[in-house]
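Memo to structure team: turn this sequence into structure tokens by end of day. - J.P.
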Amino acid sequence: MSFDTPGSNHRSNSRLHAVDICRGLALLFMIEAHISQPLGWISNWSFILAGPFFLIISGFSYDLFLSSRLKNSSKKYIFPESFFRGFLIYIIPLIPYIIVGLFFSSLFSSVTGHTYKIDLFHWGIFQVIGAGYILGLLVPNNFKSKILATISAFIITYIISNYFHESLNFLITGIFPLFPWIGYFLYGRIAYELYQNKQLKNDKALLIFSAIFLISSSLIYATFNTDLPSVARGQFPVFLFLCSLHYFIFSVLVIYIDHKKLHFSFLDKLENIGKICFTAYYIHFLSLFFIQKPVSMFLNNVPPAISNLIILSIITVILIQTEKIWKNYNYKFGFEWLLRKGTEGLLKLYRILVMKNIGWTAESEHRKGEHRKGEHQKGEH
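Reply from structure team:
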């Protein structure tokens, strides 16, 4: 199975459309969660689902990346490519953060006396994904190992919180701390294994299994009587429930969009946004910055729910139109484009260094051989 890159100008029938639709859905949840005028339970659930869904589908995509490389590339370059991708996913979002930090530090530190701290371990959604790419190949590529790694993320969180809080605190603090949030990324890799399972290729079996998974996790969640605010997403019963909910939605999309080929115009647009979800993540923030306050002032007497829907609609239209226009330019200078070009450049440099090292080693062995040959000839004389 082949998968199009974001620069593709056509829709491939072999592409797993459910993946990009889930990316677009996660982004839609993020937009709704960041609008200041709340829409009741819809805003609350959007806030709860956005981060986990984004990380789960990123973990799934990581295994798609691995499977494509194992089929088409030399295995010796998989680890460096995974490392370079992870490094760039981690570092690119830090650049604006550092720039803003330096700006505030230079502008306000002398006035307020407060030093603006720039933290390189500034955990956010992209930093967790980057760490997932870098650490990914340390997890054996099989179902049991991925389950153990996912559970271990929560065990490590508990150990650090209770025994190494002072020395390793940076691993469990932040907007999306590495532990336990990498567990969602790792679960995405488990979801890929389930997708590949031959027994779940049948639509009926897949739907039944995903429904049983959702019901079982819901019962576990209810048994522990865990609340569902955003802070509870790091608790294992909530984690299990959110993963099963994502898996059920993903399974329904696979069955009806990828297998039965049903067509929904809105899902097509959501899929297109999903193809550039990293870039769209920043576009939606920029759009909110310029749109939210003017709309709120203009609709001052309108209920917050109406303002929310208007802002959500405007930003969604902006993203749809941006993707439509940008596609003609192969998404140049977007996050995905920078990631692809940066990885290609680093891999090229890596190959050059490896070849030079091979050349140096061969030359060194040749010189040693010549030296031993000379010594042998002297001994004969």
